[in-house]
Specification:
This protein is of the alpha+beta class and 103 residues long. It contains 2 helices and 4 strands; from the N terminus they run βαββαβ. It has a 4-stranded antiparallel sheet with strand order 2-3-1-4.
Length: 103
């Protein structure tokens, strides 16, 4: 009895997370085009402003926040809805996944 060939050329469905799923991301502060680099204190103030704007926009507060002042970046654990709004903020250069392997 012949068997149907496996369809190996089909890509698996991408993982789609619900908007209320918690994710860990790192966001990088957009650097000004004129070459000025914010001090750690200025980075803290910029991050606070970003988070406040996104919280007001979404009504969501991140579960965790860690600011890396000297690296002009910050990590958050928040919902996908919050992360989507965060990535669209004009003071955020880009956001990347911070999923750490489980040990």
């Amino acid at each position: 009895m012949p068997t149907e060939p496996a369809h190996q050329d089909q890509d698996p469905q991408p993982d789609v997370l619900p908007s209320d799923a918690l994710v860990d991301v790192v966001a990088f502060v957009r650097m000004p085009s004129h070459g000025w680099i914010p001090s750690p204190a200025e980075t803290d103030a910029i991050v606070s402003s970003i988070l406040e704007r996104v919280e007001v926009q979404t009504g969501i507060h991140p579960e965790e926040i860690h600011v890396f002042s000297n690296m002009h970046s910050f990590a958050v654990r928040a919902t996908m809805h919050f992360v989507d709004a965060l990535s669209a903020d004009s003071d955020v250069d880009y956001v990347t996944d911070n999923d750490q392997p489980k040990v």
